[in-house]
Amino acid sequence: MRLSVSNDAFQLAQVFTISRGSRTEAKVITVKLAQDGYAGFGECVPYARYGESMESVNVQIESVRGAIEDGMNRQELQTALPAGTARNALDCAMWDLEAKQSNTSVWKLAGLSEPGPVTSCYTLSLGEPDSMREAAAKHSEMPVLKIKLGGEGDIERLRAVREGAPSSRLVVDANEGWSVDGYLELAPVMLELGVALVEQPLPAGDDDALKGIERSLPICADESCHGVKSLEHLHGKYDFINIKLDKTGGLTEGLALKAAAEAAGFKIMVGCMVSTSLAMAPAVLVAQGAQVVDLDGPLLLAEDRDPPIAFNGAIMSPAPAALWG
């Protein structure tokens, strides 16, 4: 086995802003596992919110290089590295390599049904109300718009987006940016404007306050939900969980989390970081049957992998075999 790692940057189509800051490119780490003429690929996006950087994730990957090149398998990887982006890239590359070596597909290896197209949200980044109204109008044909909020003026932003896209279903993502009082002020406005779901309104460390809040609209855990073990802390606070493979540490844990969450009565959202079609490819498998899909990373890019995942508006096809899986 031979492990190769590269740090890559893909330009965004426009500046992307959330409550924590802005970016103009997607910085990703690409992993390649090669053996006997076959190669498997994976991608991850280090996230500072979880104490990750390009440097720290590269160090994590290098820490298991010897074991991987000596034949570490996917099950052993789950305990060799913690949940997070390093394990995600390696786990997905292992799935891809195994599928190619077996002359089959990842969905068959995982015991899943053949994947079909899914409808993804399209994300509007945080901005002034006028710019968000303009962006909403530009993408008003999208059936689901996800709105980044999390600061003063959010009511005005919400109303502006609804004016720009009167027919789209709305999902709101606060990225931990509200207080309890802020959420209670915004909840009636979100209901009035037809918001279908609000994602992570409070900081993960303060979300016990959600237990005492009237369920006027569904609430989704993002930063509060990582792997299967995190589910026990979410009951009574959230209705949905957002599964992101960079949080779960790969497709292996992502599929386990989905099964456990559904069994526990949670509904499923599948999300992504700002990343390429290579990162979306395994997530599409998790997204089958999910109530909300937010895998629009490639739509936010000015450049992507070759070949990319095909989009027809918001309808996203499964990954081509030449890309992954």
**Alpha plus pi helix count:** 11
Report the uncertain regions.
none
Major β-sheet annotation = 8 strands, parallel
Strand content: 15-25%
Oligomer: single chain
What string gives the helices and strands in order?
EEEHHHHHEEHEHEHEEEHHEHEEE
The structural class is alpha/beta
Helical content stands at 25-40%
Shape type: globular
Q: Give the N-terminus to C-terminus distance in angstroms.
A: 19 Å
| Overall strand count | 14
**C-alpha Rg (nearest Å):** 19 Å
Q: What is the spatial order of strands in the main beta sheet?
A: 5-6-7-8-9-10-11-12
Mean pLDDT: 95
Summary of the model, kept short:
The protein has 325 residues and is of the alpha/beta class.
What report would you give on this structure?
- With 325 residues, the protein is of the alpha/beta class.
- Helix content is 32%, strand content 23%.
- The chain contains eleven helices and 14 strands.
- An eight-stranded parallel sheet has the order 5-6-7-8-9-10-11-12.
- β2 (21-35) and β3 form a beta hairpin.
- α1 (54-63) crosses α4 and α6 (129-138) packs parallel to α7.
- The longest helix has 17 residues, at 85-101.
- The protein is globular.
- The two termini are 19 Å apart.
- The model has no long low-confidence stretch (mean pLDDT 95).
